[in-house]
Design a protein that fits this description.
Elements: H1 11-20, E1 25-26, E2 32-33, H2 53-73, E3 82-84, E4 90-92, E5 103-108, H3 111-122, E6 130-134, H4 141-151, E7 166-171, E8 174-180, H5 187-193, E9 204-208, E10 222-228, E11 233-239, H6 242-250
Parallel strand pairs: 6-9, 6-10, 8-9
Antiparallel strand pairs: 1-2, 3-4, 5-11, 7-8, 10-11
Helix pairs in contact: 2-3, 3-4
């Protein structure tokens, strides 16, 4: 004979109800709580909880901002009478401070620092500027040009015009010409290519290996020389004209 519980149910039935009851869930504070039964017609755990869209956008924007500022943090611009050493620290240059607008010495620790310099220069370019780029193969000349063009909004491929001698670009309303004169043979090749017509006072020029066209190209407003070091690059920037000095002063 099966014993009856006070409410009319068997002990076995009561025991089954107890076993079927969900176990309490632990809380972080050590207390326990029972799970909540899903509403009628609702599947437990669905729909999944989603991160609010505004939070996702905030996180994406924050990440993008951090990426954009990485290059800028890689470059230290010295003040009057200073320069950066191989560790990127400021030190006395030993030069007169009134020469600050004409000369600038920088240590570029890596490619990010070169891009940061390019971004600063790009914001200060003026129509008709002529910039000489000096340094050995692989020193960073084309990297600097690519960084300036990208900073101006150009999204295409930027390569060294080693065989074409010149590559034209248009960005931010500016016409720019990137010359690589490493393979220029002589004046006849220069004249036959019609390069002289490019210097119309409006185009901006980045000229690698300018010494190969000495006497054929205008004097530089600014000269940027790269020296390859065991760690990074040493960069000397010299302004020859008033427009070049204004560019350096605004850096």
């Amino acid at each position: 004979m099966i014993a009856e519980s006070p409410c009319g149910q068997s002990k076995d039935a009561t025991l089954m109800m107890v076993l079927a009851k969900p176990a309490p869930l632990p809380n972080p504070d050590g207390t326990t709580s029972h799970s909540t039964k899903p509403a009628s017609g609702q599947v437990a755990g669905y729909p999944p909880q989603r991160t609010p869209l505004s939070n996702s956008l905030d996180e994406t924007t924050s990440h993008s901002t951090r990426l954009q500022t990485t290059a800028a943090k890689s470059l230290v611009i010295p003040q009057a009478g200073e320069r950066t050493n191989e560790k990127g620290n400021l030190e006395s240059s030993g030069e007169e401070t009134n020469d600050r607008c004409a000369n600038l010495s920088l240590h570029l620790a890596d490619e990010n620092a070169t891009i940061a310099l390019a971004q600063r220069l790009a914001a200060r370019l003026k129509p008709g500027m002529v910039i000489y780029l000096r340094g050995d193969l692989g020193a960073g000349k084309t990297t600097l040009v690519r960084g300036m063009l990208n900073a101006l909004g150009y999204g295409g491929r930027v390569k060294s015009p080693t065989y074409t001698l010149v590559e034209p670009y248009h960005a931010a309303g500016l016409d720019l010409r990137h010359f690589d004169l490493y393979r220029l043979r002589d004046e006849d090749e220069w004249e036959a290519a019609g390069f002289r017509d490019e210097f119309d006072g409006q185009n901006i020029f980045f000229i690698e290996w300018p010494e190969n066209a000495q006497g054929l190209i205008p004097h530089a407003d600014m000269e940027i020389a790269f020296e390859i070091l065991e760690q990074g690059r040493n960069t000397e920037i010299h302004a020859n004209t008033e427009i070049g000095k204004q560019c350096l002063k605004q850096l």
